[in-house]
Amino acid sequence: MVRLEYRLCDEKQGFPSLFGYSSLSNGEVLMRFACDYLVKGTRVYEKTSTAIEGDLYVIYVIESPDEDEAPSGPVFMPDWVGICMEVRHFREGMDDYPLVHRLRFYDPQEALLHLLGDYLMIGDQEWEKTSTEVDENRKVYVIYAKPTTEE
Questions:
Q1: 3-state helix/strand/coil string of the chain
Q2: What pLDDT is recorded for position 80?
Q3: pLDDT score for 117
Q4: Which domain holds residue 21?
């Protein structure tokens, strides 16, 4: 098990620690390193960089000015058993991103490959990844993507 810390990327404030985790698996740290955003509480954070300081893994973030997390409806699969992942249809300027596909993994390497892939085939449609996030409120990883061709 390893330690992970999220820090505010603000040199004037001395890069303050926002929150930390003392016993994560390497796989979970890898998946979080791969995500562009973190949703926690009512805030959305955007990753600026990552660092390794001895046995501590660090993700530097800024509060995302364009994103605001509204309270969601019921949470299904509200646990970290297995790895829950959603693919959502990203459309510029929209506040709601429809669910395209839901995945569940038991191997963090397989989940990581999905987060790192630039394109996904879902049925007969190819989707291009625009960003990824870990949503701690809903305990799910999210891939935002747009179709490469309109149906």
A1: CEEEEEEECCHHHCCCEEEEEEEECHHHHHHHHHCCEEEECCEEEEEEEEEEECCEEEEEEEECCCCCCCCCCCCCCCCCCCEEEEEEECCCCCCCCCEEEEEEECCHHHHHHHHHCCEEEECCEEEEEEEEEEECCCCEEEEEEEECCCC
A2: 56
A3: 98
A4: 2-63
Rounded to the nearest integer, the mean pLDDT of the chain is 91
- Would you state the pLDDT for residue 68? 55
Q: In the structure, what pLDDT confidence band is assigned to residue 54 with cuts at 50, 70 and 90?
A: very high
- Would you say residue 75 lies in a domain? no
Same-domain status, 87 and 141: yes
Distance CA 126, CA 145 (A): 10
Question: How many structural domains comprise the chain?
Answer: 2
Confirm whether 107 is domain-assigned.
Answer: yes
68: in domain: no
Residue 95 structure tokens: 């506040």
Residue 77 confidence (pLDDT) above 90: no
The amino acid at residue 111 is A
Task: Please indicate, yes or no, if residue 53 is contained in any of the structural domains.
Answer: yes
